[in-house]
Amino acid sequence: MNVRRCETVWLAGIVLTAAVLVNPGWSVAQEVPPEPRADEVPTNSNVQFTGGISGWLLSQGQTKWSHDFSGLTYQDDSTNIVELSGRATFSKRWFARGDFGYGIMGSGTLVDDDLSSANGPLESRTTSNITGNNLWYINGDVGATLIHLPNHRGAIGFFTGIQYWRQQHEASGVVQTVCNPVTPLCNPANTGQDLAPGQQAITNTTTWISWRLGVEGDYRVTRKFTLEGKFAFMPLASLSNDDIHHLRQQPGPTLPALQQDPSFRMTGTGIGADVDVGASYMVTPRFSINLGYRFWWNQVANGNVTVYPVGAAASTINLNEFQTYRHGMMLGLRYTF
């Protein structure tokens, strides 16, 4: 594209933008304005309530952590979560809302890597099947709608709140997939074998408590079809993670026995983000069907690992990495009273 054509495109864009700013309703003047939603319908009450039920369908999640001598990755699949939500809107501007979600873990895999020295090469790798357990979360937000688009076209708002997110993985069996022949951590002859068939190997419980700051908005494409989006940044996320190694109740040839409540404890602080995008179809002014996609992510920036051996004092080492994410499709129903 030459310079003259670029200048023409820029000039056209500036003129169009100026026209819309001078008359925001110009771009939709020839269209039939959308019907107002329930929270825009005139009413004698200053408070309106919206309730919803959603499914976070076939979600996938991962929790990964590592220190100088070891690293574990919990990857679960096909986890369905049911979410109940409620929102109270005051004077069509201020709002308070809460969400509660609960789900049973689906299938998945735990990968356990061990090193013979701090930050050394991989010496041993085992995998286990994730056979449970569950997750649940609570979100609580307050906020305000600051911008209403003309002709009931949409709105933009801001919010702040707290998120409590807890999930627990149970892993069974131990299949050795990698073994360095010179390491004392494993026996090369056992490669490919399940060393603990049917036995519970590890239970991992991750808890995040996060402060959320966010923006949300919606835009009415047609009289009944609306695009929606919500983004929350967590400038402060606090982690507590307990790891129980059930097969290390007795000392081994090279590894000490570990306590069982817990064997390892990780703590730290970091950041995170939540993203929700989707669309809704208004069946009636008070009832809508929603379809979307959700992604949640938290990561530690500074943390420690405490090891609890049997018959010895606990010791603390640096937590090199810890992050949790979950994503999947959302399908739900909403009704405004």
Descriptive notes:
With 337 residues, the chain is mainly beta. The chain folds into 2 domains: 30 residues; 302 residues, Lipocalin (Beta Barrel), CATH 2.40.128. It is built from 1 helix and 12 strands; from the N terminus they run αββββββββββββ. A hairpin with a 3-residue loop joins β1 and β2. The chain is elongated. The N terminus is likely disordered.
Short descriptors:
single chain, 337 residues, mainly beta, Lipocalin, 2 domains, twelve-stranded antiparallel sheet, 1 helix, 6% helix, 64% strand, elongated
Topology:
Layout: H1 3-22, E1 47-66, E2 70-90, E3 94-104, E4 108-115, E5 122-148, E6 154-179, E7 200-220, E8 225-245, E9 264-284, E10 287-307, E11 315-318, E12 321-336
Antiparallel strand pairs: 1-2, 1-12, 2-3, 2-4, 3-5, 4-5, 5-6, 6-7, 7-8, 8-9, 9-10, 10-11, 10-12
